[in-house]
Each structure stands twice: as structure tokens, then as C-alpha cells.
Specification:
By secondary structure, this protein is α/β, with parallel strands linked by helices. It contains 15 helices and twelve strands. Strands 2-1-3-4 form a four-stranded parallel beta sheet, with helices on both faces. Strands 6-5-7-8 form a four-stranded parallel beta sheet. Bound molecules: (~{Z})-2-methylbut-2-enedioic acid.
Amino acid sequence: MSELSLVHEITKLKQERNAVILAHNYQRPEVQDIADFVGDSLGLSMQAAGTDADVIVFCGVYFMAETAKILSPGKTVLIPDSNAGCPLAQMITVDDVRVLKQRHPEARTLCYVNTTAAVKAECDLCCTSANAVAVIESLPQDDRPLIFVPDKYLAGYAARQTGREIIAGGGYCPSHVKILAEDILRLKAAHPRARVVVHPECTPEVQALADTIASTEGMCRDVKRSDAAEFIIGTEAGMVYRLRKENPGKTFFPASGLALCPNMKRCTVEKVRGALANNQYEVDVPEHIIEKARKSLAYMMSLTAPAGGVRLAAVTSPVNLSSPGI
Ligand code: CIZ
């Protein structure tokens, strides 16, 4: 089937099924181009929850589709490739969290959004790379320790930014660690006026060379606001597609062509068609997990301005910081 008729069929299927297509910032360009929304995992899940769509097709990795399901339990959530997992999310299990809690019974547990729904349900709070610092700064400065899982580099960044002590998990993103300090130095030497923008999942050596450290949505905002004409982008290399599209007068250099997430690239336009045509692959999260995971998401959502003006009554109600666990 030609690209054009494929896109035509997707448009038709989307209408028939009252579906919305979400594409993460790291998706292939052609997948981003057919999406209704492109963004980060939380923003996309919130945007989808704010629509009256019956079906959400999440072009991303599994934990992202789970987040969409947690925020839209009444909608059908589909992931076009059922093998699109996140190795970072797989670096922490519910049992690992329980062991940490046994070791530090007084601790608050904070998980990165890159975790399974079951891990979110086991933790008190959840955050994204965009709001990790805000979530931690909002917590009372008492003697309760803070556990953060699974990403050790995001934990280190948050600890440096907030001055708080953090008991960190040992996880890391295999794609972000491919970006080396030498890559940044080499590009800086070739483009001395370029602004260096890197993700907090990068190693501390890479973070130390950055002009700014930001989540993917933070990168979009930083680049738009900046007067610089050239940017070195230290995250999954697919990010530069959206940056180039939204900022045609500016030049972008991916910090490393090796920083490609193979799981993010599993999704293709053809698989999006298959997802809509065959209702595959449905992402289900048990109700008791949804209920608990929603609580851990609710706190950060009560702090963060909702994406795209979407408000979710059920998750933006005030969260009581003195409730058990928080
Ligand atoms: O939350 C997301 O989408 C991820 C994994 C990263 C980011 O910085 O947006």
C-alpha cells in the first residue's frame, strides 16, 4: 500500500473508531506526522483523557500506554507494537520497591513516570523529568528519607537541584548513556556558539557540559525562547525532528547518532493502521492497580499546569500531603 493510501485509510479508521493518535517526541518522523498530538508521556495521556475519543492509539513504549489507561480507564488503549518496552522501566520491580521500603520504613517513595503501572501503584508519588524538581521541592523538609526509582541520573540531577538527599535506584536509560562527554565537546568545538541542551537521563559528565538540562517538552520551550541559532541536543536523536519542524530558522545537532531507542522505533505507520483495523494490542491495567497508580500520579498533576489546557477533575483535586504515605 502506498504511503498516501495508508494515511488515507488511517484517517478513515480513526473516524470509524472515534480514535485519537498520540506520538511521543522520540517516535519516527512519519509517525509523528500522522498523530493528533505529539509530546511527552504525561502530557499526551492528559490530552487524550481530555478528548471524547473512545480509542487511544499510543505510539510510544508500554509504560506510556499504561499511563494513558490509568488516566482514561473507560477508553480502549492500543499500542501498535506489543514488544515496545522500556528497558529503564524494567530496571525496577514491585519487589525491588518493597525491599527498599523494608530497608527505609520511614521513607517516601517517588517513582519516575518510566515505571510499570504496578510500580507506580506501589509508590507514594510519581514524577516526570519535567516536574521531578518541583515535586521534590514541594515535599516537607522533615526527617523522612526520599527514595527515587529507577533512574540514578535523574535522581542525581534532582538531588543537585533541590539540595535534598535521595536514596536512588540503580537504573539508567541505555539510549541516553550512549551520549558521551566527548560527543558534546567535539560538537562544541565545531559549533562554538551552539547552545547545549541535554536531558536529565544523561550522565552527570554530560549534564555538566550543558547550558540547560530539560525534559523533552522543556527542550521545546527552551529552544523556542532562546536567541541562539544552533543547538546541540543531548537526548534520543529522534527529538530533533520536532525541534526542526517547529523552529525552521534554527539548526540542530543530535549529540550522538547512537542515542536511538530501538523500542521507540518499533512503531510504524503500517502498525498504526493495524492497531486501528484489528484493535491491537490492547493495554489493560487491573482496576486495583489503576486506582493506586492514579493516586501516585495525582500529586504531580495537582502541581503541574495541565497540558493543552486540559483539566481532569478526578486527578486535579487537591492532594493532602499529610495523608498516609505522602
Ligand atoms: O515522560 C516522557 O515522555 C519522557 C520519558 C521523557 C521526557 O523528557 O519527556
